[in-house]
Write a structure and sequence with these properties.
heterodimer, A: 250 residues, alpha/beta, four-stranded parallel sheet, 8 strands, 51% helix, B: 489 residues, Rossmann fold, 2 domains, four-stranded mixed sheet, elongated
Amino acid sequence: MRASLFITCYNDTLFPETGRAVVALLERLGVELEFRSQQTCCGQMHANTGFRSEAFSQAKRFVRLYQDAEAVVVPSSSCVAMVREQYPGLFEELGNEALRREFAALLPRVYELSEFLIDRLGIEDVGAWFPHRVTYHASCHGLRGLHLGDRPLRLLRAVRGLELTPLPNLDRCCGFGGTFSVKNGDVSSAMLATKLEDVLGTQTEFCTALDNSCLMHMGGALHRRQAGIRTIHMAQILASTEASPAEIPA
Amino acid sequence: MSTSGYHPDLDPASAPPFPKAALPVLNNMQLRKNVAHAVDVIQAKRGRLVAEKTDWQQLRAAGAAIRDHALENLSFYLQQFEERCTAAGGVVHWAADAAEARRIILDLLRQEQADEVIKIKTMTSAEIQLNPYLESAGVKVFETDLAEIILQLGKDEPSHIVVPALHVNRGQVREIFARSMNRPDLSDDPQALTAAARSYLRQKFLTVPTAISGANFLIAETGGVAIVESEGNGRMCLTLPRALITVAGIEKVLPRFQDLEVMLQVLARSATGERMNPYTSLWTGVTPGDGPQRFHVVLLDNGRSSILKRETERQTLRCIRCAACMNSCPVYRQTGGHAYGSVYPGPIGAILTPQLTELHHAQSLPYASSLCGACYEVCPVKINIPEILIDLRAQVTDQERRQTRRWFDPMYLGMRAANFVFASAGRFHAAQRLGRIGMRLFTGKDGWIHSLPGMGAKWTQSRDLRGLPQQTFHEWWAARDKAAGKEAQ
């Protein structure tokens, strides 16, 4: 099994440990990974802020770059949702038939990480070890965009040593929303405070998710409050073993 | 009832932009508590009743299909409605905009020699700012819906389209009633409050012979009108007066009587979390000796035809005003309705209001969402609100980027720069290196950024940001590749 890793622009820049964990995890499971160094961004930030022609040029880059990939794995649910939900409309609106065909051929081979593990590799127990109390935050794009369902929870339940505590109001947004968090910074902060009440109530050590954007949002506020709970991308939990435990940055 | 009823903060032409309008609410803890409690209660009821319908997804699909069919053939069904309503003794009027609708209604009231009018809660009349217009023309307007009475007597503004006073709690209702009905001894027991409203209302029902209503549905096949409500005040307004004027948006038409089977099921469950609403009134034209003897329908366009033109946006007009989107919205839950600067708040307001003004106003509303998708999931007629929000953002951006003052707007500068950077991996990597150096200025000893200038301050107002790591992922990969290559040699 060969797969190409689309790390996403913000993981590359801000969360390289998530990328390293995806590599460790997938190579352990026998996947031959490649990384195309020309990759940048899927265009989500531009599309969701209303910069459609800019989003289009990034979407075009993505499709061209991966058209011959056997599978594309993306450790970010919102970027996969961008590709799945918004690319079709973008290409249709701009009336580029050739690109539309290339995209249609590529789309079934683009996977969010938990989809790739469960749907493509057929693995729920990835052989991980993470002896900590953890709660899982369902990102809106993973929950309602990709319909990940209980895939993330099935993966977490199979992790040895992990004690999973359910997060109340799982379907409620953390208030990030990309540029929403600055354009409507006050409302976003209020939503975040509501979400943190639920997260802190779990009295766990870690809050995990399949999207570092929500985690950056919640983690930033948890750090500000010097709360005891830290955020960690699920790839890092799944990559963690007794021989090679998760790297947990301060 | 001296209140003019005009609320500049709910007029898209004068309301402040959403982020600014939200501030006073965010600082009003009592109001936020009232709103969160109310929407949580309705949401939970809705959830239970939707869960018991095994065919809920099919009902949603049917609801969307019925509404789409009506909208695709709107002129046909509107003409059919006019023809059949007229044949049954009603009079149909067409209003291109709010001003024309107001004039028509005032003329009708003058013909009736009415200096007082009773009203059923109607969002359409709020949209055209009917009450202040009538009051300034010397017509006294009496709202009869309990929540509308609370707002009218409290000189307050509606914050929700189904439960317009949901931001007011029972203690506040007591104060308003005690003051305006001169009942200082009134308790805050819901029964006592309802009884006070009833005695206030009963006299109006019995003495005011003219009524104004909205419509939940117009039925093309029969020329009939349908209204659903909970309190029975609507039934009183629809049956006791001599004359009835109904104002309805042109999108409210359903092709067939049978379509109510689907619409009434999804509406009651979505709106109030009930299997069926307590009162459903259906009437067709005029029946001699029974109910109002003069019946008028004012069909209002007011920007709706322009929404029909765009395929994506057309979904907006499927809306049956159930408010499930605002009850499920995490933004509305924090801000309540007033921040939306329109009588239509929440996610549906965020897409409807800018479109009704043809994007001349309310440009901040499409951004008043984190695009979490909860609204789309609960919408009984499957309006893809996030998709429309994004489409409207693109229209706002296209409009704004032509304005010279936006050239140096940090958001526009940043977005253009980011696009330039993302167009080439070389530039992207150079920008990462630059960012790593630049951000050192703001990074504390603990490796975190606690305060940023400019737009970044909106982030650091409540969150820290981890400092940029020493090595990006692609640098790590390249180094690993190189090491592996050396090993292979």
